[in-house]
Amino acid sequence: MTRLLTWLSPSYPVGGYTYSHGIEYAVETGRVRDLGSLVTWIDAALSRGAGWTDAVLFVAASRAVRAGDEAALEWAAERADVMRGSSELALESAAQGTAFLRTVRASWAPEGLERWNAVLDRTGRPPAHAVAVAIATTCAGMPSDLALCAFLHGFAANLVSAGVRLVPLGQTDGQRAVALLDTILHRVSTKAHEASLEDLGSAAPVIDWAAMSHETQYTRLFRS
């Protein structure tokens, strides 16, 4: 448990604080302006956007490692790399996944991780954050439902933190947002474990649009 808390702590050096997942542009255009609209935005990301895609691929990667199926992991890693709505969203996932695996391997690596890291290397693709965490937590023997909830909580909490700084909101409103999103991320995790690979996909075009628009935003604090 402490290893999972460490790996998904905001202090873990993956650079998550540098990304807003399009929220910075959404704030500039008035689409995110208060607690309610911030929760709605993150709910969409979790339920229909990158959060859902990552959840399904997290489960797929975890099952592949548990089964010793290298081809299945390669498939999940490839899909996780290409299923991004913009170059900044791709960077957000790949940069965090790369930093996560690098740090885990150098500090608190579970048995078997090197085998699966070599599989990722063979794909020639950077590891998506969700796939990297799925591999490490599965190698460490952590239940995938617990690990996925922790991953989604970290994803949501990082976006709440970005919203608190950008809107801006007070810290108490930030904690209210985290509380409101808790039921949602548990629902997404449960649904992802029940889903088939045919359920893979996203339907959050406004988030993708905001992320694309952020790439040319005149002033910005975040990378995405």
From TrEMBL:
UreD, UreF and UreG form a complex that acts as a GTP-hydrolysis-dependent molecular chaperone, activating the urease apoprotein by helping to assemble the nickel containing metallocenter of UreC. The UreE protein probably delivers the nickel. Transmembrane segments: none annotated. GO terms for cellular component: cytoplasm. The gene is ureF. It comes from the Bacteria. Belongs to the UreF family. InterPro entries: UreF, UreF_sf. It holds the Pfam family UreF. This is Urease accessory protein UreF. It comes from Skermanella stibiiresistens SB22. Gene3D superfamilies: Urease accessory protein UreF (1.10.4190.10). It is found in: Cytoplasm. Keywords: Chaperone, Cytoplasm, Nickel insertion.
